[in-house]
Amino acid sequence: MRLVLASNNAKKLAELQTLFAPLGIELVNQGALGIPEAEEPFDSFVENALAKARHAAQLSGLPALADDSGISVTALGGAPGVRSARYAADAGGAKSDAANNERLLREMARIDAREARFVCALVAVRSSTDPEPLIAMGRWQGRILHELTGEGGFGYDPLMYIDALGATVAQLDAATKNQHSHRALAAAQLLAQFREAWGLG
């Protein structure tokens, strides 16, 4: 089955393609079909993921999958949250991983309580008007370090330390990340729903 991924993030595409490989699902990046990014005006990951999935399905005529994910820091009241990708840009900085990490480090400079979680909402729709979207949520607990550590991954991975694994997410190999991550947890839920509700696999 072919699904449009409502994202232009190549690393996210690679992660999700691996996670959904057991069902023979082929993901195609929306950019490859000339589909522009959707607006993300909502305050929750689920609402933004649903908006992106419906947008991609409407413009492609294909079933669509959307991921809305980010980092929520307890001491910051859940911020950056849904604004994770635009965290630095919201404060007048660049829209980049490096700038986002720099802003988070500044905001956390005098904070000792550094608990945080990666959050992922995955939503799949068969069409833009699908009344029964498939929705899955994954949360991965960790804490924010005082400096970037590790070269892998993307986004906030170099700052997010996972105590259970003794490493930052940026220090994990792809296979380990795909076993434990917020996206992996959400994907496992969605795999079950694909089988049950869509009859895949």
From TrEMBL:
Superkingdom in the source lineage: Bacteria
Co-factor remark: Binds 1 Mg(2+) ion per subunit.
Keyword Metal-binding attached: yes
Catalytically driven reaction(s): dITP + H2O = dIMP + diphosphate + H(+); XTP + H2O = XMP + diphosphate + H(+); ITP + H2O = IMP + diphosphate + H(+)
GO molecular function: ITP diphosphatase activity
Cofactor(s) recorded in Swiss-Prot or TrEMBL: Mg(2+)
EC number: 3.6.1.66
Transmembrane segments: none
Protein name, UniProt field: dITP/XTP pyrophosphatase
Native species: Roseateles paludis
Gene: rdgB
